[in-house]
């Protein structure tokens, strides 16, 4: 049976002597496989493009990759940062060349198989039209992809490579050459007491800040949206407009205003409220605990309008028939909330709510603008209200611990990416089907 099947399959071949393996082997020299397939124009163009790329970029790629290994050989002459940048660019160009090289081989192998089955090689005009039709989506996205690579991927790779070097305030190029130190920065982050204590404290506060501030803003938005959506509430448009106003004001303006209101000496919260009532104010900017409380309250104020707008739209889309059926069944308000309102809200806004947690995890603006991550904490290299992202900023631009900041950034990125990945996977909004 197997032999019969093989014979029947061979009988389907119109040109059995045209071998796809030969086309793939010939494509080791770019374009030769296409010429073997009698696609002469395509093969010629590929050969010229690959040859031009090699002539123009070969020296840059080889020199860049070599510099990526050594990071320079002569202090005060070689700048390790330039060597690192050129090395990363060389990696990007090399990956691009190898990808196109592999695609060229696959293209020759695929066309050869089609020729075996009787496919007729199109003429020059038809071939150009087919190529344009097939490649049009890639041509459209190519500018954006190129910009993404050099604006996003390149800086990320540069930061990641720096995490494995000995760049520090006392070892700055071009006066000194950088060296690869492997995972030494990551080890120091957990082995040295000052770094370990600071990292644990900052990470703990970052997680508390993210969970408490985001959950409170979501809970407040949900409560207000449900109350305002009640049919007995009048002047809904006015109330909704008022609740949206904090979102309309630029966040940095609001944060600076609140920073003045919470000022220990002249802030209105102390001078106009707490001191008249209790005889003394609170050290909002001098005590880490009070600074954190103030930050959470400000973030709730800044964050709830957006979530409120989301919930309002979803609530208005829920059919009243659901609630009427629940009333007939004798359901209580809590049962209607837990079985109708809450599932609808989470299903429709789940991914956006997850983004709120991710945003607050990296919410640099409020931390820095309110109190620059302060107040200072003894035996720590971070302020009392610093979260990971503001600590990284401080290490980079204030103390020059760039390599350590890069190591922390990698850990930070992995945490956010892992959290977002698993939460999005579990979100019912990203499933094709779901039932309430």
From TrEMBL:
Primary localisation category: membrane
GO biological process assignments: maltodextrin transmembrane transport
Molecular function terms, GO-annotated: ABC-type maltose transporter activity
Protein origin, superkingdom: Bacteria
Spans through the membrane: 44-62, 82-104, 138-164, 202-226, 238-262, 289-311, 340-359, 402-422
Domain named ABC transmembrane type-1: residues: 203-423
Membrane topology classification: Multi-pass membrane protein
Intracellular or extracellular location(s): Cell membrane
Pfam family name, one: DUF5683
Keywords, sorted A to Z: Cell membrane, Membrane, Sugar transport, Transmembrane, Transmembrane helix, Transport
Signal peptide bounds: none
SUPFAM superfamilies in the record: MalF N-terminal region-like, MetI-like
GO cellular component, one term: maltose transport complex
Record InterPro entries: DUF5683, MetI-like, MetI-like_sf
Record function comment: Part of the ABC transporter complex MalEFGK involved in maltose/maltodextrin import. Probably responsible for the translocation of the substrate across the membrane.
Family: Belongs to the binding-protein-dependent transport system permease family. MalFG subfamily.
Designated name of the protein: Maltose/maltodextrin transport system permease protein
